[in-house]
Each structure stands twice: as C-alpha cells, then as structure tokens.
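Late entry, magnesium ion complex.
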Amino acid sequence: MTDLLQQLNDVQRKAVQTTSGPVMVLAGAGSGKTRVITYRIAYLIEHERVAPHQILALTFTNKAAREMRDRIDDLLYPGSTRGLWIGTFHSIFARLLRNYIHLIGYTSNFSIYDADDSKSLIKQVMKELGISTDSVPVNTVQGIISRAKNSFIMPAEFQRDASDYNQQKAAKVYEVYARKLRENNALDFDDLLIKPLELFDKSPELLESLQDYFRYILIDEYQDTNRAQYLVAKRLAAKHRNIFVVGDDAQSIYSWRGADITNILNFQDDYQDTAVFKLVENYRSTRTILRAANGVISRNRRQIEKELVSHRDDGEPLFLLESFNEKREADKVGEHIQSLKMLHGYDYRQMAVFYRTNAQSRVMEDVLRIHRIPYRIFGSVSFYKRKEIKDAVAYLRFIVNDQDSESLLRIINFPPRKIGQASIVKLREYADARGVSLYEAIRNAPDGGFQTRLLNALKGFVSMIEQLKMIAEEGTVYDVLSNLYELSGITSLLQAENTPESLTRYENLQELLSMARDFSDHNQGANGLNEFLNDISLATDYDETPESENYVSLMTVHAAKGLEFPVVFITGLEEKLFPLNCYEPEELEEERRLFYVALTRAEERLFLSWSKSRYHYGQPQVCMRSSFVDEIDSEIVMTEGGRSLSDAPLRQRDDGGGYAGRFNGRPAVPEAVRGRGGSAPAASSESDGLRKGVRVHHAMFGPGEVLSVQGRGEQRKARIRFRTAGEKTLMVQYAKLNIV
Ligand code: ATP
Ligand code: MG
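Prediction complete; structure with ligand written out below:
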C-alpha cells in the first residue's frame, strides 16, 4: 500500500486519502487529476476495504473507463476491479435503466437510438408534419429538442413558450418525436440521462436503495457535465455525500453540447463542506509548452486563477509552420513526422495531428498515405455508423424489441422483399387505426384485406423474425447474427452484387460477426444480445482501436481531451477556422479554451501550423494566421527559417525546403511525386508500392502481409494475410491500406 501512495505528490496523496465527504480537485492540465481518481479507487478498494461494486466512477469516454480499470488492476492485482461500476454516464445509466425502467412504463428490452437514429426519426416526423427541412434544418430541430430535453422542458411546456419560428416548428416535432420514441420502446441519448431522474421521482424507494448502494461516486472531466448529469450525480450522492469530482474550468469545451461550466464553479455552493485540492505541478509538458499554454489561457476573463508549473525542463521551442495551401501544410506535417522518427527516434504512436474541424482530415489523410505514414483517424465515420452495420444492428434490435418500428422500417424491405413504400403506408394506417405496433399490424395483416402477393411477402418476413427470436432465446449473439445473415440473405446479396463497394460491406459484416463471436466467448449471460447492443449503441467515436498499434493519431481537438502525446501538430491555425467564427466574446473564450486543451496535450514537441489559403465550400480562400498564435510569447516560437518568431520578418517565405530541409538533412520532396490533386498522379495508381511480401496496416483488420495483388485500376485486389483477422481479399481502392 505504501507503494501506491509513494507514486503521488503530497497534495495528490491528500486528495486520495480524504475519502469521506465531498471533495473537489480543481487543477490545470496534466497535473494528475485523472491519476488521482485512479489511485483513489485503488486506495478505497485496497486500504479502506470498500467493495468494488459500491464505487461508481464516471468517465468521459468508454476508452478512458477501460484504461482506468486496467490501470487499477495493474496497481492492485488482476481482477481487483471486478464489480466496479465504471463507464460513461450513458453506459452506466443504460445499465441501470435495463433493471428498473419498467417502473416508468418501458420494458427492459428498450432500444437505444444514437444521434443518427434520432435524426432520421426527426426527419421522418418532419415529413409527416409537412415541415420542410429547407425551412428549418434537421440539425437545428434536433439541437433544439435536445436542449429542451436536457433542461427538462416537456413538449407541452415547450410548445407554450416557443418564441421564434424555428422553436415553434421544433416544438411540434418534439411532441410527435417523444411519442414515437415511447411507442417504439426506445430511448435516445438524452433520455439515458433524463429517465433516471424520472425514475427517482417515481420511486423514492429505488433512489434510496441506489444511494445506499453507491457509497462512493467519482467523476472525471467534471467541467463538461451537463445539467442532467449534474442532477443525477447529486441525487445519487445525497445520502453518503462521498462525491469526488475533478476538473479544470479552463478545459470546458462542450458548452455547444449542453455542458454547463457552472456545475464546477458552483460545486462548493452545493456542498459547503467541500475539501478543495489544487494541484500545481504539471508532469506532462516541458516548461516551454506550459509557458505557451499559460500565456494563452490567461487572456480569458472568465476563469478561476490557477497556478501550473512544469515538473520538466525547458525542452524545445515551439515550431511554427507556414504553407501556401492545405496540401502543402499536410506535406510538411508528413515530412516532420518522418524526420522525427528517423532522426529523433519517435515512434508513430507518439505523434498526433489535431485539427479544429473533421473536414480537415481528408487532405491530411491523403498526404500521409502518400508519405506511407500509418495513421489512424479518431472520430470520423465510425465502424458502427456504416450502412451495412446499421442494417444488421436494426435487425438485432428488432429481434429483442419488436415494438421498435424505426428498426422495422429499416429492415422490412432490406434485402428487397417487394414490400413497397405504398404498402408500408397502408400498413401503418392499419396499425394506427387499431392502436397497435407496426409489427402487430403485419402479423394481423391477413385480416386486413391486403393483396396476396404482399401477404406472402409479409408472411415470409414474420416467419424469419420469429425464428430468429427463438434462436435469441436459446443461443448466443453469434448464433443469432450468423443465422440472421443466412436467413435474411443480406450477405449473399452483397456477394452477388460483386462490386468493390459491396465486397467491402460484406467484409464489414464479417467483422461484426467476429465481434459477436468474441463477445459470445466472453459473455455467457442470458441477457447477451441486449448487452451486445448496449455496447454497440454506446460506442463513441473516440473509443476504437487497439492501443498497441504503431500509428500516428489524427483527431479533432475535442477528441483529444484527456490524452497526451510526446509530439503534437496543431494544424489549420487560421482566423475563422481556429478560432472558428465567433460572434460573442464567450464563444471566443471557448475557442481559446479549446486551443489551451490542444497545447496542453503535448509532452515534448509542439508544432503550430497554418496555411495562407484553404478550400472552403469548394472555393480557395485567402487565410490570415490565427490570432491565437500571437498570444504565445514569440520568443519561444521558432519559425522555419530557424529564427524565433520575435525576430522573424513580418512575411515569411514559404519555400517548402527551408526548415524541413535543414531539419532532416534532405531536400524537400518535389511536388510531382507527392501526388493527389492538381497535376500530380493519383494515389490509386499502380506505383503505390503494393506488392507481394509488403507489410500493410488496415484500419480495422490491423497489420498483415500482402500475399498477392491482381487486376488494375478500380478492379485492383490484394490478398492479405492479417495477423489476427486471417486471410482476406480486399479492393485496394476502398481498403485504405497503409504500407508499414
Ligand atoms: P488533463 O487535464 O489533461 O486531463 P490530468 O490532470 O488528468 O490532465 P493526468 O493525465 O492524470 O493529468 O496526468 C498527466 C501525466 O502526468 C500522466 O502521464 C501522469 O501519469 C503523470 N503524473 C501525474 N502525477 C504524477 C506523479 N505524482 N508522478 C509522476 N507522474 C505523474
Ligand atoms: Mg485527465
């Protein structure tokens, strides 16, 4: 035990050992807040002999939860965290709701709709109500509804108070949307946070038993909790009051998603006897990086004063990269990555490239591929959002919850069963007239006077679903999924289509099947399918990837929260991009906090990059360097000419060779071979180096070796033996292979 505490500084140790009553750790980036939570859980289990199931730890991503659990297992002994409640608010409350939601009129097999599902439901409701998406965009309606829900404003109340045009339209949609969710026995993401509160109101006995059960509650990244999260935590902690939160107001970056910075600012008002700990030592970044970050954040007016000093030495200056367009910018990043690897011994996995908006990733990705740099994008279209995966998941959801008409609509005529749109409309009318679910209507269709051809198609569908339901009762998730592929004909349809795209989709479905097998091997419980669906619905964009792979990480700054990398590139540092268009002073302050988050991810080397022009909506635009760059003390910023920014001439020459040339001792790569866009050759040409024996990396299947390559152009296929996923033939054009 003494060992555990010796790995902490004095203040951290006190925060870990103050185990009863409300505690807040308020401290800057990299000061060990997450470490304190981890050690505190270990301490509670080991020293205070608290049973793991009495501890509830809430993290910002599933990945963070997994890492924390692994770390505690390392600190104590393998399996020591068994029973511990650790996860995101969404995943923990989905679990709780499965047990108790019957108290508020749902059944435990409810479906969880992710943001895309709920968007398509909203779209459909708008269509039904005759509200054109040209007059109010779906995203706007979705945002308004979500904010209303998070503020606990019910549809009727919202409708009464709706002031402007958008709100009035959204109010109408909100009412029908909420009704449909309930009819479908489905919850959207907001419901996962709100329904527990409804449950607590409905059943004070349940609340009391949960309060007894969770003796210790710990929350990371508290500055980004929203009102619902705040209330749930507060109510659960009301009895024992052992609530421990850590956060940094300077890193609050999710107000656009409803996060409420006042939660952290007012914590002490809620809990007058709060013990507050301030950590001042930063263990992550060099003194220079910290000086830059502190200088920037000190310009924000609204903040709690915090001290943060580096535990490390001065380190390298920051490097400023200036390019004439975004392609050249990406090129420079690629060149630096290669030279950092070759000359300074950094691994790819130690480097990360950040950007403000997801759209910026494409150019970066294209160029890194040409540089043969293995990379991994976090938070782009995730595996679970692909069409074929959503189709298969809709089948699974429907098998567990046949009230889920959204999922039913997705699968009823996929693969095609000659059940047309007009028939579906009639069936829905039939269902509405009888007040039954759509599936119930389909099952009763023979009494409804429908045409024989349609009845036959419906009969086939019903018999398949009923068969799958039976398999679900007895068998594993793997059994259900493999039978589903077989009986529905999804996979044979894709194989028969035999286009590069359909084959990639086929591969993705096979990947889902492997995941189901893996899940079935590890989870024998009766509730398997529900839990499998929970995991899938709640996977966030930031959760993927095995950690051990050696690739450069590409992500938005939002996705980088809580992470750290020895080398960081912040790209697109231009006015109106980073900071993004700001209309209010508060918006600029939030952008600045975001920039602070970006800077403080870096441990050793930090590159700031901007481009003098960039495509916006298909048009090249002239760009100005971000004012954020000027907020950093120019003495610690080195330009490509090898001078500090403070004595560089006002206009830097962008010669492509300059700093990069000196840095890696080789001339810059001529433009023509860097490829993509303009007159350069396309990356899909046969000169990409893909041939027998070459080792490659695939985003999903991981590392592998090329066995053979056949065909040309779009028809080019590679047979690859993957280390874990086995042999596969992939279309080169779609497979996005990286040569390693
Ligand atoms: P952020 O605000 O970015 O979330 P944080 O405050 O949660 O940062 P951690 O991620 O917990 O900070 O810690 C930053 C780094 O410093 C980690 O690599 C961590 O292991 C290390 N660290 C923290 N405290 C100590 C310590 N007492 N001794 C050695 N290393 C430490
Ligand atoms: Mg942290």
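Residues 33-34, 562 surround magnesium ion (ligand 2) (CB under 6 Å). Will revisit in the morning.
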